[in-house]
Specification:
Layout: H1 17-25, H2 42-54, H3 56-59, H4 71-82, H5 90-107, E1 119-122, H6 125-153, H7 157-163, H8 167-192, E2 208-211, H9 213-219, H10 227-247, H11 251-264, E3 266-269, H12 271-280, H13 287-298, E4 305-308, H14 312-336, H15 343-356, H16 360-368, H17 377-398, H18 409-413, H19 415-452
């Protein structure tokens, strides 16, 4: 499992030509100086370094500036990235509330999970940043903590002794680098978020259903769909997610714990870097040889290779995100397809958006540092459809009662085995009910005999 968060450019040795080109333009990438997407030349590097230095005085001496991530710096950079935004108007708030109210009525027919209740709010990008930052901290902090520990553990013993006196300063610089990259990523996400949790992650506060009307309007500009229909469709998706998060109490913690478990097993491998530097023979003292070695260094991948002893946690997270988004898409499509003819077009647009930007796997790659393959949402939609046909809506939603009842990653490719298991359980339940009826009847007969005697 490779990671690519925070601009450290951690990645595999077989990067594509574009990645190689970017590394050649910016040999300082492995040290944390690069664009938010890992790109950028000397100008970008100096700009980011300037941002880092300008924030030292105020950001390093606050509680939010301490620890593995400088969140004060992250929040300031994200705010700069967002820029000036208009406050949410009363008309926008009313439109959001009406869209959610209508979506909730329709969803009642396609799922057994009742409405989440709570508040319905309209946000602008600044609101999204402020309201979701606490959950992002929960997701990012363990990764940053264990990344720092793994980096220190990867150093030779002599190097660790030399680093010792400067460890506090290095930790602060690392926290600022993490904060800078986090701020760039969150600012970008705030400008593209349509709802409080449309990346599949429960980052919005509990019991809040939030939509971002200005972002929705911008995203819908290329769709030939009435604005009201788009608003109701997105409201339905967010309302469906909130029903899951509210009525499936283990779900949020399962998502967060998967990230924490992955982070706890982080390992940094620098053996290929050591081998490459030995081959360069820098100790020769020959100026021509050293110049040749430096030129060769420009084209080498000197990024540490990051893996986790708990890589299965990422696979579990990926499957869970696919099941959540697949369920949401299925129940929304079921409730709306006959009411709003443009539902199919909006669903297809959402799938394209998920594949090209603003999706859960890309949010993790940019912010948490976990690079997920595209979740199999399409396969999950088909699985939930087949389950619905086979055992009905009530038993379909009952699967969410416990994590052990959920489909596995293998079931996304072969739903028949999962459905067979549900059918077998159904037959067993029916037998148990009939047997209980028989026992009750026999007890009543015994009671009658005892009364007669």
């Amino acid at each position: 499992m490779n990671t690519g968060g925070f601009g450290f450019n951690f990645g595999p040795g077989d990067d594509d030509d574009d990645d190689k080109s970017r590394r050649e333009q910016n040999p300082f990438g492995p040290f944390g100086f690069g664009g938010a997407d890992g790109s950028g030349g000397l100008g970008d590097m100096l700009n980011q370094f300037g941002q880092m230095l300008s924030g030292m005085g105020s950001s390093m001496n606050t509680p939010e500036g301490q620890g593995p991530v400088n969140y004060a710096l992250a929040e300031r950079i994200a705010g700069q990235q967002i820029g000036q935004v208009s406050p949410v108007s009363a008309q926008e708030t009313s439109a959001v509330q009406e869209a959610v109210r209508l979506a909730e009525l329709w969803l009642d027919e396609s799922t057994e999970l009742p409405t989440a209740g709570g508040r319905v709010v309209a946000w602008n990008p600044e609101d999204w940043l402020a309201q979701t930052l606490p959950m992002w901290k929960r997701l990012v902090t363990p990764v940053a903590e264990h990344m720092n520990e793994a980096q220190l553990a990867s150093l030779p013993e002599e190097a660790r002794e030399m680093v010792g006196p400067m460890l506090q300063m290095m930790n602060q610089m690392s926290g600022m680098n993490f904060g800078m990259q986090l701020g760039n990523a969150l600012g970008d996400l705030a400008k593209q978020a349509l709802t409080g949790s449309d990346f599949g992650l429960p980052v919005a506060p509990t019991d809040i259903t939030a939509l971002l009307p200005s972002n929705i309007t911008a995203a819908g500009g290329e769709l030939e769909v009435p604005a009201q229909e788009l608003m109701v469709y997105i409201a339905a998706r967010e309302s469906a997610r909130q029903r899951l998060y509210h009525h499936v109490p283990w779900l949020v913690e399962r998502l967060v714990s998967s990230v924490e478990e992955y982070a706890a097993g982080l390992v940094i491998d620098t053996s290929h870097i050591e081998e490459a530097t030995r081959e360069l023979n820098l100790e020769s003292g020959d100026p021509a040889a050293i110049q040749d070695a430096m030129q060769r260094l420009q084209g080498m991948d000197l990024s540490p290779r990051i893996s986790s002893r708990n890589a299965q946690a990422v696979a579990r997270l990926e499957t869970l995100l696919a099941l959540v988004e697949g369920w949401v898409e299925y129940v929304v499509t079921t409730s709306m397809s006959e009411r709003i003819p443009s539902t199919g077009a909006m669903t297809e647009a959402w799938r394209r958006r998920r594949a090209t930007g603003g999706s859960a796997e890309q949010a993790f790659a940019k912010i948490v540092g976990i690079e997920l393959a595209a979740p199999k949402v399409t396969e999950a939609v088909e699985l939930w459809r087949r389950v619905d046909v086979a055992v009905g809506q009530k038993r379909r939603d009952g699967v969410w009662e416990h994590p052990d009842l959920l489909p596995s990653a293998e079931h996304l490719d072969n739903s028949a085995d999962f459905i067979d298991g549900l059918l077998d359980d159904g037959e067993s339940d029916e037998f148990d009910r009939e047997f209980a009826k028989l026992e009750e009847m026999l007890r009543e007969q015994d009671d009658e005999k005892d009364t007669g005697n």
